[in-house]
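Case study 2.
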Amino acid sequence: MAGYYEQPEATKAAFTEDGFLRTGDLCRIDHDGYVYITGRVKDNFKTAKGKYVAPVPIERELARDPHVELVCVVGSGSPQPAALVQLAQSAAALPRDRVRASLKSTLDAINPQLEAHAALGGILVVEQAWTTDNDVLTPTLKIKRHVLEQRFGSRVAALRGSQVRWEDEA
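Prediction:
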C-alpha cells in the first residue's frame, strides 16, 4: 500500500517511522528470527490498577483445559481480570465439582506465570452458548469481547482468590 487516496494524515498514521504498515497485531520474534502473532493491540485492556493486560496469551493457556470450549478474558476497569468460559459439550454433562476442580487446577497453574496485575481473579462459567444469534460471536466466529464485558463485567469484577463459579451461583 502506498497510502490513502488524498488523505496524507491517515497515511502517516498508518505507517511506523521506519515505513512499516501498522497492522494492529502484537507479535514476538524468536531467537531464529521467526515472527509469531500473539494477539491484537485492540484486545488489550487496562485494569483499575492502570496496567494493561494482553488477554490472548492467557486465553490460549486456559483453552488447553479439555473442559473449555470457548474462553474470553475480561476486566477493563476492574481491579483484576477474570475469565469467562463456555464449557465443551462433553463437560456440561459431568458433575460440577469435577469440572470445577479441573478449571481451578488450570487457573492455579497459569496465574503464577502472569504478572500480578494480569493474574486472574477467577473463572465464571457461562450458561448460554456463545453464538452469532445472541451477538457474542461475529459472522466469522470471533468472540466479541466488548459484548461479554458489558454482559458480565460486574459479575467477574467480584471474583477473587482464583474462584471458579457458574453463572447461576450466587
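The helical segments are 8-14, 55-62, 89-92, 96-110, 145-157.
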